[in-house]
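Q: Give me a backbone?
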Amino acid sequence: MNSANCSRGSVWRKWDLHLHAPGTKQNDQFKSPDGSDVWDEYCRRLHDSDVQAFGVADYFSADGYSSAREKYKERYPNSTKVFFPNIELRTNYVVNKAEQEVNVHLIFNPFLADHQGRIKSFLSALKITKTDSVDRDIKASELSQTHDFEGATTTREYIRNALTDTYGRDADLLDCVLIVTAANNDGIRAKAGIKRKAVISDELDKFSDAFFGNARNVDYFRSTNRAEDKQEYTDPKPVLSGCDAHSLADLDEKLGQVVSDATDGIVHEPTWIKADLTFEGLKQIIFEPGNRVFIGAEPDIERRVRENKTRYIESLHINCVEGYRQDQHGAWFCDEKIVLGKELVAIIGNKGSGKSAVTDIIGLLGNNHNQMSKGLSGAKSEELFSFLNKEKFLKGGCAKHFLGVLNWYEGESDQKLLDAQVATHLPEKVEYLPQKYLERICANIADDEFRATLNEVIFRYVKPQDQHGKKNLDDLIQYRTQQAQEDIAQKKQEFHQANANVVAVEKKLTEDYRKELEEKIRLKNEDLEAHANAKPEEKQNPEASPRTPSTESTQVEQLTQRIAELADQIAQLEAEQVAVSASVEELQQVRQVIEREASALTGLESKYQDTLAADGLSFVQIVKVTLDYTALDAVVMQKEQRLRQIEALLLTGEEISTMGGDDDASAQLARGAAIAASLVCQKAALEEQKTEIIERLGKPAREYQQYLNELRLWIEKEKELRGDGQNPGAETLKGLEKELGNVNTLYPQSLRTAYAERERISKEVFSKKRALTQFYNTVKHSIDGEIAKCREHLGEYNISIEAGLRFNPSFFDEFLKFINQSAVGSFRGQEEGRAMLRRFTDSVTDWEDEQQVFAALRAIVEALHTDRREDFSPLNAARDVFKQMKGQKPVQELYDYLFGFDYLGTKYDLKVDDKDLSELSPGERGGLLLVFYLMLDRQDIPLVIDQPEDNLDNKSVYEILVTFIKQAKERRQIILVTHNPNLAVVADAEQIIHVSIDKKDGKHDFDFFSGAIEEPRINQAVVDILEGTLPAFDNRRLKYRKQRRAV
């Protein structure tokens, strides 16, 4: 088994780089309470803690480090914990508001040869700001007495000169030492107005690689405009916390712990660093301060993995089955176990080295359905796995001799022989995009497959209760639109007869549209009134005051148990809600079908009553229908009542706060009762109570900040509802009032009876057509929200969703098939007539806008009855529509086509820079698919991608994929094969796996080693194999070298 070279890469560990040891030069309080050996007690506390790296500090000395490291190794020789020398230097700079001298810590690289000798050389070269009796500079190595250390100070220049003397002018100091400056909540900023101190603060900032502080300092030091001159760029820098222990009691209280009190809240939190336990690992915090350092109880990724262990792959194990003969087929995989990182895993290697072998096997074991192309629209299905392929590893039956096992952090392992087939009827446990799949998408071979893949992602945005048991978007759309399509077919039969009576068309404004606007205005006013009543209650800025904490562990345990019970109840209710909602929908559709058929019978009675009466018959003598919805309605009512009960139990506090428009006692009581009944609110209240108990933070201050946030959101919502006076949105109050004014003043009101009937029925058809898009609009709204969240990261890569009705350009040919373009009229002449028709259709900018569509239709009909050619005199001369028909084609059929809207279809399209999928270049298609998976896909199972950069330009890789890979790895495990440094390096892969296959003499021996990017062997492999070699590394370090030269 290849285990010696197997590492999970950069993992989160607790580090404390600022603690002292017994014998520290100042404030040494290390004493054993029972008289035992203080070093035994000290080392035991370090060993028993979950902190893995220690920076042992001492003032102008490394004695504390040397002693602690030696004493610890004597007692725990097999421990993997590491120690770093931390020399704490007091400078003579007083810049901050507290008038405190600034302490600078030098954390030396303990992995360099003779590092302790180098430290001694540094101390021998370091001047302090004091001279002896003959005016000679005193060096740090000469300090011996306690009062010497207490009074010693130095300067940046002395530190820089001593480092140069020690390591040489050509040395890259980042390989030797990190400079970490102590900072408080204000950083190292001087008092306002003191220019000299502000300059010193900026120079100290430039001088430092990192800062000691707390979580409240992080945003400040990651900002890029913290210099006195706000136009000057400042590098983001990491912040580290340290317990600064000077006693055993300090270690007990702070080392690796979260410490809080009732007055100040949290006063200490541990530092987590995602890196190897090496100086090279520690250096990564300089390059990635936002991704490599965390101050707090636990990084989010650790919590997510702990809560979702069945969604993270722990390892992949591949071995031959018993009886396999290597001499016949080659060694291939001999008991290989590859442990996998929790975030971004990059698999690298030369061509043919087995990179795709690893991902194909993960895809197979994870039951990914991309083993074969889907073969939609009659296309031939083909193999998409490039290694587990009939032309490669499956050829000759070799694969059946190897067993793969996928191990998860929790749950049953998945194992298959490598010649197995994916079970497409079972859910996927891994999302895998093989290289061949990406190639098909980018080459435009599989447009239907591309749309099907995107639809799978889109379907996850449909709420479970709205999926009605369907498994994919196409089935759900068919289910949701089936009745509407049948209604449209029935309405077309009605206006077919109405069209027979139409002889002229005049423009008219519909009452329905005007009422629709008035109703929207009324509802909008109600919304504004309700919104005004929901204005957050004003809160004053509280003054800090102590309060008595309650930290009973038993109370926390009871709350935790109750929260878990409520969570179970909520989950059960949500499942019941989905089932009952689907049942209600099905029953209501049954009722709609019955009502439609009954309505059709009523129409038959009206149509044929005169014919029947002529023979002494009546319709009721022939057809008798008894409708009784009592039982059906009772069942629906019972189910709806249950849904309301469930809804009440699942109401959130935000939903309850919008109930009712008044603030009278009864409304308040109703809201209070709703809150009391809601399990979600009960759970939230218990969680809040639990948080309060655990955190011991000042509650009034948090409530005041919450009030400010709620007030801001309230003001924004007010603007959204009312609209801007200059350019109001169409659905705002002012926008609706403006549109209503246009309707009341611009459009004529008279319609002929026959035309009105035809238009009424046609509008019903149009309404049904438009209703088909409502489902798309619901999903579009959810996806638009996700795109908006990532808009700033997309840059010029403009992704949008279009949902609605689509106008089919075939309309022009179909319409002109009815017209004799040799006849006198508006559409005379082949080119002239088509241009006239296009002028009418171009007036419609939104084919879902009923007003625009029917205005265009009226204009077309008027053009059939009056000559609209501007170069023909007299203008608007009356024309006979029947004489303009081609080959005696009936006018009725033309009107049936014109008002039947067969040329309007539903559309749901993704666009990139306003281009449809079919118009995208190969790189754009590949980029869109990957961004969709990384940004919009709501799956939390591992995502495996085989060489995503192959069909993308470097700009797209860097500007789009790197950003979203970084975001995606925060919520799911990402495994990718790559040879592009922008992905592996700039995306800061936590683990890099180098694979190879030794093909000499046909043995095909697979081998690998893995680790963090900072690990020397991995570092060298990246340089050797990835495209671009050193530039990806050098670019990441250039700015830090430049910074040092500027100091």
